[in-house]
């Protein structure tokens, strides 16, 4: 029997970095990532990124835009428990230098009304909201030699993980309540492949888009925060450290860059171009 072709099982956008996931049925992948994904970011009083690592309450902020089916004519809508919703347009003119994991970028200030809303929602009085007005100024590079662009994503324009990889991690953990795919905060969830097949892919074609695989994703403590209860635990980092540790880090999912922008939709066939090498020898399965 012919093997079933891999398919795109889910698309997730995060309009503001570190806020709740927004699942959509279709999306446009532009030169700088999925349109509507991590185009906004929270910074602290020194202009450094403030993420759910330090501010777990961000995971309870629901951000939406026209790209996620939000209100027409609204660039960003913010909702959070106990706080009236706020609608914003993309700012222009008032810029400041911000830091994203030590990298200096220029961003546009959302304004005092947005900052006041955000401070009330997350309970911290020194945070501000900024917009990535010039993603073309942020070039990302990988050890593989590939380069591309990104907005406020950690390292690459798009991230991808397979359902089978997550299922394998959950099998290793052995908890009767498995971790959901949302813990891993990837943009694209792929079904119909073996666990960690994505480790050795060279590129994927989904819908109209062509996306080179730049390398694996190193995981951080954000994956240990329950997005519903905001409680912290040891999984999946503890288990990944036993099975998926090399170069002093733990790994699951892959970074994608954008060779050809295009439309994608849940259910699309995923065409895989094999990579030139194997996964790192230190991977233990």
What report would you give on this structure?
- It is a single chain.
- With about 280 residues, this protein is mostly beta strands.
- It has one domain: M1 Pyruvate Kinase, Domain 3 (Beta Barrel), CATH 2.40.33.20.
- It contains 3 helices and 21 strands.
- The strands form 5 sheets. Strands 1, 2, 14, 15, 16, 17, 18, 19 and 21 form a 9-stranded mixed sheet that branches. Strands 5-11-10-9 form a 4-stranded antiparallel sheet.
- The two termini are about 25 Å apart.
CATH topology label: M1 Pyruvate Kinase, Domain 3
Shape: globular
Q: What's the alpha carbon Rg, rounded to whole Å? A: 18 Å
- CATH first level: which class? Mainly Beta
Name the helicity range. Answer: 10-25%
The proportion of strand residues reads: 35-45%
How many strands, which pairing sense, and closed or not: the largest β-sheet? 9 strands, mixed
Write the CATH homologous superfamily.
PK beta-barrel domain-like
């Amino acid at each position: 029997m012919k093997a079933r072709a891999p398919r795109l099982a889910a698309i997730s956008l995060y309009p503001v970095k570190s806020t709740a996931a927004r699942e959509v049925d279709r999306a446009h992948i532009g030169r700088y990532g999925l349109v509507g994904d991590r185009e906004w970011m929270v910074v602290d009083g020194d202009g450094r990124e403030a993420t759910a690592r330090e501010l777990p309450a961000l995971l309870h902020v629901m951000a939406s835009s026209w790209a996620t089916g939000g209100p027409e004519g609204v660039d960003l809508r913010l909702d959070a428990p106990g706080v009236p919703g706020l609608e914003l347009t993309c700012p222009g003119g008032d810029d400041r230098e911000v830091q994203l994991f030590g990298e200096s970028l220029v961003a546009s200030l959302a304004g005092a009304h947005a900052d006041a809303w955000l401070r009330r929602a997350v309970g911290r009085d020194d945070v501000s909201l900024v917009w990535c007005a010039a993603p073309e100024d942020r070039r990302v590079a990988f050890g593989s030699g590939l380069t591309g662009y990104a907005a406020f994503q950690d390292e690459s324009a798009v991230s991808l993980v397979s359902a089978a990889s997550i299922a394998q991690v959950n099998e290793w953990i052995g908890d009767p309540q498995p971790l959901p795919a949302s813990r891993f905060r990837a943009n694209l969830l792929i079904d119909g492949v073996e666990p960690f097949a994505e480790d050795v892919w060279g590129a994927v074609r989904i819908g109209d888009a062509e996306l080179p695989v730049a390398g694996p994703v190193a995981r951080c403590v954000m994956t240990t925060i329950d997005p519903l209860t905001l409680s912290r635990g040891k999984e999946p980092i503890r288990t990944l450290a036993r099975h998926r540790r090399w170069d002093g880090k733990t790994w699951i999912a892959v970074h994608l860059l954008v060779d050809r922008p295009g439309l994608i939709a849940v259910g699309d066939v995923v065409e895989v171009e094999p990579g030139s090498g194997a996964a790192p020898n230190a991977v233990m399965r």
